[in-house]
Each structure stands twice: as structure tokens, then as C-alpha cells.
Amino acid sequence: MSLYYRWKNFEEDEDRPEKPRRFGVTEMRGPNHTLLTQNVLQEIFESMGQFVDGLKFSGGSHSLMPKPFLKQVIDMAHQHDVYVSTGDWAEHMIRKGPSAFKDYIEGCKQMGFDTIELNVPSLEVPEDTLLRYVRLIKSEGLKAKPQFAVKFNKSDIPTGGNRAFGAYIPPPPPRSTELVEDVELLIRRAERCLEAGADMIMIDADDLCKHADSVRADVIAKVVGRLGLEKTMFEASNARASEWFVKQYGPRVNLFVDQSQVMDLECLRGRNLGKNHTSVMQGELKRGDVAKSIQHYMHGNGVSEDADREHIKNLMREAWKKVKVHRAAASPLFQTVIGIILNLVRTAHCIYQHGDGH
User: Fold this and answer.
1) What angle is formed at CA 117 by the lines to CA 113 and CA 121, rounded to 5 degrees?
2) Is the Cβ–Cβ distance between 94 and 60 less than 8 Å?
3) C-alpha 332: how far from its chain's center?
4) What is the pLDDT of residue 339?
5) In this structure, what DSSP letter does residue 87 have?
6) Cα–Cα distance between 263 and 14 in angstroms, integer?
7) Gap between the Cα atoms of 14 and 251, Å rounded
8) What does the DSSP assignment read for 119-138?
9) HSE-up of 30 (CA within 13 Å, CB side)?
10) How far apart, in whole angstroms, are the C-alpha atoms of residue 45 and residue 341?
11) What is the pLDDT of residue 158?
């Protein structure tokens, strides 16, 4: 049984599976545009490590870090049962030749990486070559995670039945710069990667769900239906997209999110209330509960409920900034005591931010 709470499925009651998990995986974006210090990552792992399954070094950021620092971060992740994945970097090594890619795999293994991600759109290699890379990664004892996008160069799309049988060779340059959508090609390539031994298929869903209101549900349904929920991971570029995925496919869906969204995502996995809890608040008022801060601000300032909600969220953001400032400041308290206080704040935020709590 989980040490944290009962994990409620939308259809049945069950415990939150312990790590390593086959489904309900949360992969967290690691250092990328903003360099997370070792202390920040340690705080994340200590406070939310139970909810983080993987750490991904996006954008090839690991190539810019000193090896001793990178090794310390990887070892720290492993101490909390968090696997570590590379990001978009393999394609740069492939351009240097097959031997350079093999050296890259061996270097990742020595450094302690568990998974190597292959950004298929950036590789620009024939399908049989892609499958050979997947097998090469598996032969070194690492996990392979090809990443696909829905849009392809028009010149890469095979004609007739070539799409469904065997590998195809894209035409030589010049390549078309016109991007067109082809879900069947994505699925077929992903299926062949799984047959070759790939452990997970990452779907770059940025073009599909930049905004939750315009999610291409038909495309995602086809991908899940053919590849399976357990073998597919979606990149949720924002909190609303994460909420959409959990509501549509339940807490078993695998998602790649920013480190700032981990706690929100875990709360969404735990129950199906979502961000909009107006009905909960109105129900409390009908029962005669005391007025909340939202009602006080609305009546005192004559603003709408939506404007008031945004004001309350801003207050919460400012409060978190103050918490982080005091966390970094010198204090006579033991670090254990400070950690307990921070965990109480995180727990309160987790319990009440989506509704009336657990």
C-alpha cells in the first residue's frame, strides 16, 4: 500500500502503485532553459520523489554540464528510485557517424543514464536505420524511448501499401519543407519500434494540445488505441493539458511534465475534480458554511468571481515566493524542521487547490 494516500481510479478503488510503475508514470523535465541546482532537485526528490518516476535532461542540457555534477544528479535520482533519461541529443551524435553514436550510448551507460530518447523527426534517417538504433540501445542494457510528432515532411510519406509493410526509405534530398499530418505513419513507425524492443513511445503533443480547448482528441485516441496506454507517454506542455489527459484516460496515463506541475498532476491522478470547483463551493454555501475569501473579495470590491479567483491565485503565487525566500535564508532551525514546515505547506496546497480536499 502506498505510504501517502489511497489512489482513486475513476472506475475502481486501488492503491497508488509503487515504483517502478508500468503505468501512471510521471516523467519530470530536468535542467533545460533554467539550470536547476542540486539543492533544488534534492528538495523536489525529498518532498515529491514518491510521485516522480523519471527525470529527463531536455534539450541536450546534460552535454553542457560538468561530468561530476551530472553524475551527482543522476546518483541522487537513483537514490529516490527515479530513472534518468537523455533528451534531444542523440541526433547530433548520429550525424558524426555510427561509431560516434555507439560511443554516445556507452558514455550514457557509464554516466548512469537509464533511458536514451531518440527524437525521430530530428534524426531524419530511414526507418530500418531507426530500428537498428533502437536495437543497439537495447543491446547495451539501456531503455529506448523514441519520440514522435504527428507532422512529417511531405516527401517522407510513403505511397500506397509501402506504409504498412516493412521499412521504407525516404527519398534523398532535397526534402520537402511542407509539414503535413499523418497519424497512420506515426503509429506504424511506433509499432515497429516497439517490435524492435523500444520500452516507451513519447508523443510530442505540443501541436495537438497547446490549449486544452483545442485538443485533437481523435488523433490521441487513435494513438492510444493502437499502441496502448502503458506503452505511450504524452508530453503535456501545460497544466490544462495534463488535466485533460487525466480526465480522458484516467490516472493510468503516462505524462511528461515540467517540474512545477508534478504536485498538481499527482492531485489530479488522485481524484477527478479538476480545476473548476465552483460547484463544490456553491454546495458549501447552500449548506450554510461560512463565506470564503472569494466571497469576501467579490463583495468588497465588486468584481466577478473569475476575476476574484485570479486574484486569489496571485496571492498564492506571492506566498510561495516568500516561502522560497525564507527557505534559502539562514535559519537557526534544523533542516529537518524546515523540511517538515515546507511539507505542511505543500500538503495543504495539494489538498485544497482543486476542491474540498481528500
Assistant:
1) 160
2) no
3) 37
4) 74
5) -
6) 20
7) 11
8) EHHHH---HHHHHHHHHHHH
9) 30
10) 16
11) 67
- Select from 149, 153, 217, 228 the least CA-distant residue to 183: 149
Q: What is the domain partition of the chain in residue ranges?
A: 26-270, 278-352
Element (H, E) at 268: helix 262-270
182/227 Cα distance (integer angstroms): 16
HEC assignment per residue over 281-346 = HHHHHHCCCCCCHHHHHHHHHCCCHHHHHHHHHHHHHHHHHHHHHHHHCCCCCCHHHHHHHHHHHH
| Residues whose CB falls within 8 Å of the CB of residue 356, separated by 6 or more in sequence, listed in order | 277, 280, 284
- Predicted local distance difference test score (pLDDT) of residue 302: 62
pLDDT of residue 201: 96
Q: Any residues with CB less than 8 A from the CB of 80 and at least 6 apart, and which?
A: 45, 46, 49, 52
Whole-angstrom distance, CA of residue 109 vs CA of residue 71: 11
The pLDDT of residue 147 is 92
Q: CA 58, CA 31: separation in Å to the nearest integer? A: 7
Q: Which amino acid would we find at residue 221?
A: A
How many residues appear in the chain? 358
Q: For residue 100, which amino acid is it?
A: A
Binned average pLDDT, 10 residues per bin, the chain of 358 residues: 41 64 90 60 84 85 74 91 86 73 89 92 83 94 92 65 51 62 85 95 77 72 92 87 87 89 84 43 49 56 66 76 70 70 73 54
Give every CB contact of residue 35 below 8 A, 6+ residues apart in sequence.
61
Per DSSP, 13 falls in state: B
Residue 266 DSSP SS3: helix
- Residues sharing a CB contact under 8 Å with residue 28, sequence separation 6 or more, in sequence order: 44, 52, 54, 55, 56, 256, 257, 258, 259, 262
Residue 308: per-residue pLDDT: 65
Query: 26-270 has which CATH code?
Result: 3.20.20.70
DSSP state of 149: -
How confident is the model at residue 194, as a pLDDT?
96
Q: Which cell numbers hold the place of 2?
A: 502506498
